[in-house]
Specification:
By secondary structure, the chain is mainly α. Among the domains are: about 90 residues, lambda repressor-like DNA-binding domains (434 Repressor (Amino-terminal Domain)), CATH 1.10.260.40; about 130 residues, no CATH class. α1 packs across α3.
Amino acid sequence: MTSQGAGTLTAGRGNAEHGREGRISGYVLKVIRESTGMTQERFAELLGLDVTTVQGWESGRRPLMAISTGTYLSLRHWLLRLGVPSRLLFQLDMALEADRFVGHVLGTEPGKVRTEDHPLASWVITRPFTDLVAWPFTRTAPSAMAGTARGTGRRGPVATSPSLLPDERAHFFEHLKVVAERADTGRADGMLLRRQAHYVAGFDDTAETADWLTAMQRAEERRMSRAGGWTPSWAVVRSGAHSLARLGDREGLQHFIRVHLADEVCEVANLNYWAYWLGEVGEPQLADTFMIELRPDVWRGTELLRHLTGKLNSANPYLDVVAHTLWALVMLRPSTLDSQTMDALGNAAVRTLDEAIASAQSQRELEAVIYALRMIHRG
């Protein structure tokens, strides 16, 4: 770099096997650059690079993953000194993980999948990672990046998200379906792979995938019914119900709440998963069994409460599980409530009841939440 008191960056080479994909991290870098108001030319000048290098990074033609670790850390430190918020740098780091996953999927033929080596079998994915992976398909920017770019005066059509070609998209979802079907259901990592491949495949909005998700959900329901209580199949059914709700089938999610959240162990498992998904559980988890092994008192619940309150609206396909989880959280952890959160939750609950969209069970639970808030306020 030629300013900010830093040295010039050199675009080194990294491991080709892991560095073939770079569209998501490149697009995140583009958003970060535009958030500073800089053109590619000015950005390259300050970094001490040719503008074609920056263009290659942002387009994914020269993947960020292919540069050396030292070069990437220099870039990251320079962005931090430039005033880029740490939340955006975290998105850039996570985008590299997303690119690694997408590269693995696109680089592996569905018929040659080795499920034991699959990235989705190695850790319990989080919301930031999933939002980035889903971005090319949903065209919805991760919440941490929404409204970030300022723009730099360019004219003409501008891409609003990373993108995959139609054949790449078809390959991506076919790969995930094969993985979900072939996963070893006798192993914890196999069930984790089955659940997560099933869930990510749900970002395909075709009728074919909707039918496949429905068939998979029925098969997993049968598997779960033979065991009873919490099992890894419970986690698969939970994710499947959410996928189907996103595609318009709210009855499946209502059935899951009514039938599979009927005991305390499963109720706590649901809360633990939400807390991990939203980052209140900081340690990465390697298997879905954390849902029943984790003590609920290790996470605070304030971020979970804030998030769920903001999602309490009739347009949300997950409305019923949001209402139910809020009810369970208030009953289990009333200590998460302060005057500000109580006001926000109370107003959201009343508004949602007035909209009369929620299921009968959700309406009863929201009424119970409002009553509990009143009792806490009086006390």
